[in-house]
Write a structure and sequence with these properties.
Elements: E1 4-10, H1 14-25, E2 30-33, E3 48-50, H2 51-54, E4 65-67, E5 71-75, E6 81-85, E7 94-97, H3 99-112, E8 116-118, E9 121-129, E10 132-140, E11 143-154, H4 162-165, E12 177-186, E13 194-198, E14 208-213, E15 218-226, H5 234-245, E16 250-260, E17 269-270, E18 273-275, H6 291-311, H7 316-328, H8 330-345, H9 350-359, E19 364-365, H10 370-380, H11 389-392
Parallel strand pairs: 1-2, 1-11, 2-8, 5-13, 6-19, 11-18
Antiparallel strand pairs: 3-7, 4-7, 5-6, 9-10, 10-11, 12-15, 12-16, 13-14, 14-15, 17-18
The chain binds flavin-adenine dinucleotide.
């Protein structure tokens, strides 16, 4: 490892690897570090990604596609089903990934493009000078070392420390978080065509339960609950759900993780530093999905970082362009608007959720997106959802 790079990227999740790759492709000398000894494990994800979300970040590859469900099915508390079927509409469908392989494939791409990738290398602090981030203090295997750079990218996930070290308020309130618990289960009968979503205040307060197919007789079965709406751990809800749906199944893997779904981060840049992905709370408030947003944020960050380095000005004044770019992008606008939608939906009683589902009972929504679903809900329930019109359309 050298002691100086143009860019140091902390964290080799989807956000960090895409940033490192795109920066290396633009000719920057890039170091990508990952604290774990293996990229992609342990998985903390239900692994759902739309084809649109994959974009041009990777060519589809059988090795990391565990299933290709064409439809989604939402189950309201009384069992009413709402079907979202892109396949029926002749559109593209989604993937359930194998993230152990997917995350590695993204890191390979970064390395192929010329980034240096080091695992078992954890950022421990930042080098600062005159209020500017100038590099990263890291533990590389057993050794503590300092690596300087023009710019540092914090892609260190939901528990990000990099932002905090740079003076950004990244503290997450428990009330803004969803607690997620998931089992990878085998020996269960699941329709590989559908991602299933279950709603209900007893089942998953403030969130939902899911199962996403993962190939023959396997699925990710999980629950996300809003921490402010229950004092019970998510795993308790998960165990109840599993007992009801898959009493015969075997648990092959357990996943726990926090998902920031309410308040947005106030700043995602500091002098010499940019945050991307979960570190900048880029997860969708409704679905909890963050893979696509992390990758797209990485692309936006590189555009601004390359410019800042070339003019020798990595101050917040220059890096603010990134802040403006992502907040005004499609995903930035969606994040803001969906907080409002989420806040309204978590107040609904089960009977209100049932009524909304009844209104869509005979409608097949030809889009597996929150926007498609919300548009149809508002069309069928203009009075009840009047206040959401301005955030959906
Ligand atoms: C239960 C659950 C289910 C989910 N389901 C979905 C889903 O179906 N679809 C979806 O799109 N999203 C889902 N998400 C969210 C998704 O996992 C994240 O949004 C996504 O991984 C964000 O990517 P990232 O690169 O920002 O961060 P991460 O993938 O978290 O990567 C951050 C990396 O930084 C490393 N790191 C941390 N600190 C340091 C350090 N000091 N030094 C070096 N490395 C460090 C970590 O080890 C990690 O590898 C889910 C999350 C949970 C918890």
């Amino acid at each position: 490892m050298k002691n100086r790079y143009d860019m140091v990227v902390v964290g080799a999740g989807p956000g960090g690897s895409v940033t490192a790759r795109r920066a290396a492709e633009k000719g920057l000398d890039v170091l990508l570090i990952e604290k774990r000894q293996e990229i992609g494990t342990p998985v903390r994800c239900a692994e759902g990604l739309s084809k649109m979300g994959l974009g041009d970040h990777l060519e589809p590859d059988r090795r990391w596609i565990a299933a290709e469900p064409g439809s989604g099915r939402i189950h309201s508390p009384d069992g009413t089903q709402v079907i979202m079927s892109e396949k029926a509409a002749g559109n593209e469908v989604g993937y359930v990934l194998d993230r152990k392989i997917f995350d590695r494939a993204l890191a390979y791409k970064a390395a192929d493009a010329g980034a240096e990738v080091y695992t078992k290398t954890a950022a421990k602090g930042l080098i600062t000078n005159d209020g500017f981030v100038k590099g990263v203090i890291m533990r590389h295997f057993g050794d503590l070392c300092e690596v300087s750079s023009d710019i540092v990218i914090g892609a260190d996930g939901v528990e990000s420390l990099v932002g905090r070290w740079a003076g950004i308020d990244t503290a997450l309130k428990a009330s803004d978080m969803e607690a997620g618990a998931q089992y990878l289960m085998s020996g269960i009968d699941v329709d590989q065509e559908f991602c299933e979503f279950y709603l209900g205040n007893n089942l998953a307060p403030g969130g939902y339960a899911w199962f996403f197919p993962k190939g023959e007789r396997q699925a990710n079965v999980g629950v996300g609950v809003l921490s402010s709406m229950t004092d019970q751990p998510a795993v308790k809800y998960l165990d109840n759900f599993v007992k009801r749906k898959f009493p015969e199944g075997h648990i092959l893997e357990t996943v726990y993780g926090g998902i920031p779904v309410l308040g947005q981060i106030e700043r995602s840049v500091a002098n010499g530093l940019i945050l991307v992905g979960d570190a900048a709370r880029h997860t969708d408030p409704i679905t909890g999905g963050g893979i696509a947003n992390a990758m797209n944020a990485g692309v936006a960050a590189v555009g601004v970082a390359v410019k800042a380095i070339s003019i020798g000005d990595t101050s917040t004044k220059t890096l603010d362009e990134y802040e403006r770019k992502w907040r005004s992008s499609a995903f930035g606008i969606a994040l803001k608007n969906r907080v409002a939608i989420k806040k309204k939906f978590i107040k609904f009683r089960d009977s209100q959720l049932d009524n909304l589902a009844h209104s869509l009972k005979d409608v097949v929504i030809g889009e597996m997106t929150i926007s498609g679903l919300m548009a149809e809900l508002i069309k069928q329930n203009p009075k009840a959802l009047l206040d959401l019109r301005k955030v959906v359309f």
